[in-house]
Amino acid sequence: MALWRRRSERWAFPACWVLLPFVAGPALAASLDPRSPGFRAVASVGLWLIWGATLAAALVPRTVTLTAVRIVAPATLVATMWAAAANPDPGVADGVALAFASLVTAMSLSPGTGDAFANGSSYGHERRFPLRAPGALLLGPIELAWMVAVAGAVTGPLLLASQQWVAGTLLTLVGWPATFLAVRVLHALSRRWLVFTPAGVVVHDPLVVVEAILVLRRHLASLRPAPVDTTARDLTMGAPGVALEIDLTEPTPITPRPARRPGQAAPAIQSEDVDAVLVAPSRPGIVLLEAAERRLIT
Q: Of the candidates 100, 121, 142, which is a domain's last residue?
C-alpha cells in the first residue's frame, strides 16, 4: 500500500499536466483570438514554452523543480480564469477548463506532491518529509511573493508584444530581477524538511535554525504528537495543524536563527540547549508510520 501511494503521488501531477493543453487549451486559444497578432503569437509561444518546461520539471522531481511547479501551476488557473472571463459567452468547455486547472493547482500544492519532489533530491536511505509553511507567511507574504514572481516574469514581454515599448521595456528590466528575488524567497519554503536517516533524525529548516539539527538514534527518546502542555522548543514558526514533539535523552545544542528587524543590525547568533523540539511536517501520520518502520519509535 505504501509503495502504491508513493507511486501515485509521484505521477499524479505529471499525468494531469500532460492533459492540461487538451482541456484548457481551447479556452485559452479562444480568449487570444481577438487580440493583436503580436500579442497572440507571444502569448501562444510563451504558454507552450512554459508548459513544456514545467512538464520537464515534473518528470525530474527535485526541490528546485518543486518550486517551479508550485509557481507555474497556480498561474495556469489564473490564466484560465482570465480566459473564461474574456469569453462573452462562456460555456461548458470553460467550466471544464476551470475545474481541471483547479485540480492541477491542487495537485501541485498537495502534501503528496511535495513529498515526492523533496525525496527526489534525497540521498541514499534517507527519507524527507516537507514541513508546513509558517503560519505568519500563509495569508499574505507567500501570495505576494508568488504574484511578484509571476507578474514580474510575464508583464513586460506581453506589453512589448502589444507594442508598448517604453512600459514593456521598463517592466521587463524591473520585473525579471524582482521575479528572481521572489523565486528565491519561495524556494526557501521547498527546502524545509524533517529527515530520517540511518543515523537518526534531522531537522533541516534554514528559516528557523542556522545549522541542521541531528538527533542520533541513541539520543532520540520519543517522537509523538505534541501534548497541549508541552514545554518543548517550538520550531514550527506557528504552522497550523498537528505538531510533532521530538524528545531527547540529553540536552542538545541548537542554533536558532535570530529574528532581524528592518533598520537594525543583525543580532548575534547564540546557541541554546534543548531537550525537546516541536516540528510541523505536512503529514504527521505518515511521519509516525515511517518512524515505526525504521524502529525509531516503538
A: 121
Distance CA 217, CA 198 (A): 8
Look up residue 133 and give its three cell numbers.
509553511
CA pseudo-torsion sign 124, 126, 129, 130: negative
CA distance 213 to 150: 34
Strand 213-216 with 200-204, pairing: antiparallel
What whole-number distance in Å separates Cα of residue 70 and Cα of residue 54? 10
Q: What is the pTM of this model?
A: 0.92
Please say whether the beta carbons of 283 and 262 come within 8 A: no
DSSP E strand boundaries for the chain? 127-130, 193-197, 200-204, 213-216, 220-225, 233-234, 244-254, 272-279
| Domain span at 239 | 200-253+272-293
Residues 115 and 6 occupy one common structural domain: yes
Residue ranges for the chain with pLDDT beneath 70: 1-3, 260-266
pLDDT computed for residue 267 by the predictor = 72
Predicted local confidence at residue 283, as pLDDT = 95
- What is the structure's pLDDT at 92? 85
Instruction: Supply the pLDDT for residue 139.
Output: 85
In a domain, residue 42? The reply is yes
* Residue of 141, 149, 154 whose CA lies nearest to 182: 149
* CA 16 – CA 277 distance, rounded (Å): 38
- On whether both 104 and 13 belong to a single domain, the answer is yes
The DSSP output letter for 87 is -
Q: Any idea what DSSP says for residue 131?
A: B
| pLDDT (0 to 100) of residue 60 | 94
> What is the reported pLDDT for 88?
75
User: What does residue 84 show for φ and ψ, rounded to 5 degrees?
Assistant: -65, -40
